[in-house]
Design a protein that fits this description.
single chain, mainly alpha, Arc Repressor Mutant, subunit A, 7 helices, 64% helix
Length: 137
């Protein structure tokens, strides 16, 4: 599969997941949330990311103020928490006690998508050779 087709497939999966959580493309924050998940999924280590770097990338892509991105994503999270909490719990496999932060929410969506896309897991940081990982005595 070509990279462009893989990206389009990933975007479709992200949008379908947000729709399943009750978020529509017309909701303010849909674009920022889907873009954040997409950017994190494309990283080499998707569960290790700086949320501020993601916000900056979104700001650059959409020529928007950096300060509006986090509130829009939080608005989406609150909507899901109020109306589709059970579905969110289903994604995590456990009941969440508090509303997730934007970073936690993005991690939840990415972890769920990674479970559904096992072939994407093949991109991993290579471990250090054994001789380098041993301490000198």
């Amino acid at each position: 599969m070509q990279q462009g087709n893989a990206d389009a497939s990933l975007v479709t999966e992200i949008h379908d997941l947000l729709y399943r959580l009750g978020v529509r493309a017309t909701h303010q924050g849909f674009l920022e949330t889907s873009c954040a998940v997409f950017l994190v999924m494309r990283q080499r280590e998707p569960l290790w990311f700086s949320i501020m770097d993601v916000y900056r990338q979104i700001s650059d892509l959409y020529h928007t103020d950096l300060d509006v991105i986090a509130p829009r994503i939080r608005r989406i999270i609150r909507k899901i928490w109020r109306h589709h909490r059970a579905t969110l719990h289903g994604l995590t496999g456990k009941e969440l006690e508090t509303v997730p932060t934007p970073r936690q929410f993005i991690q939840i969506l990415c972890a769920y998508l990674y479970k559904r896309r096992p072939y994407r897991m093949s991109v991993r940081r290579q471990s250090r050779p054994r001789e380098m990982s041993m301490r000198r005595r």
